[in-house]
Amino acid sequence: METNTVPLYQKMMQALIHKIEIGALKENDKLPSEQELGKQFNISRITVRKALEELQNINFIYKKQGQGSFVLERSKRNKHYRYLHIGDKIHEMGAKASSKILEFNIIADERHFDIKEKMGL
Question: What is the pTM of this model?
Answer without folding.
Answer: 0.61
